[in-house]
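Example 4.3 (complexes with small molecules)
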Amino acid sequence: MNIEQFLKESAREVDEFIEAKLPSRGVPPRLLEALKYGTVGGGKKVRASLLFATAEAYGVERKVLLPLAAGIEMIHAFSLVHDDLPCMDNDDYRRGKPSMHRAFGEAMGVLAGDALLVEGLNLFMNDPHFVKTFGARKTLQVAQVILSALGGKGMVGGQVLDLEYQGRDVTEREVYEIYLRKTALFIQAPVVCGGILGKAGRKERRALAEFGLRLGQCFQIKDDLLDVTGESAVLGKTVGKDVKQDKATLVKVRGVEATERILREEFEAIKTLLSTLEHSFERLLELARFVVERSY
Ligand code: GRG
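Answer. The structure with geranylgeranyl diphosphate bound is encoded below.
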């Protein structure tokens, strides 16, 4: 199975799981519709795939990971829905269709985002089979990793900096600070969770954490490059917004060519890092390659 097929397969399984597990009874039908709109059938599902690929190296079956993989994707979808709101990046187009607030109205954009976050956590923390398989301690540990990546020191803080640094001169260090918080920690989270659930040793866990963080930085660097060099129809979202909104990006500070070079160098560093590990992380390496070479 090549990496595109691997991603497609992960997406299919995660979508099926979400559809089957979303609470239907007692939830207003319009909210349920919005939850599905925000998750099922959209997005690359890279974060779920990172969890599968990491845990797979330790022989953990994908079936038992689905509640966490799907939960992580729902939480990610929440961040996209809120990111698109008029008071944030104000985007009308996401995953090849109208963004949530364009399709369901602004109030539902806020509420569906809230519900995606809460139901995303619910999906694995309230799944008896998941808790029984991995135990309460590991369930709590993965929840802690996820919540730390999202809080004031993580994604919310990163989004605040992203808005604050818009329209002013920024340093490379400030750009990396945004990347780390806004994106990298939540790309790192599924890798770290895969190590925890796979019972990785301390040394390998540390290396996986470093890999996840570096990959997360690469992910955002590539995202910013695609905003300049990519095509809207392929990406399924508006392009050219960073320049228009004068966002703090590496492309703004260093230019396209230097940014592409930095990305290539980072990928080489990631490759070396993975090659020093005891277990074989072929799939993770393929995913990393996809992240830096993707066109969508
Ligand atoms: C975490 C409580 C809390 C609030 C969120 C809105 C917000 C605050 C943060 C924005 C975070 C954000 C949108 C970061 C950008 C990350 C990024 C590059 C997203 C695109 O991810 P892909 O390419 O998207 O994986 P698909 O559609 O493929 O899933």
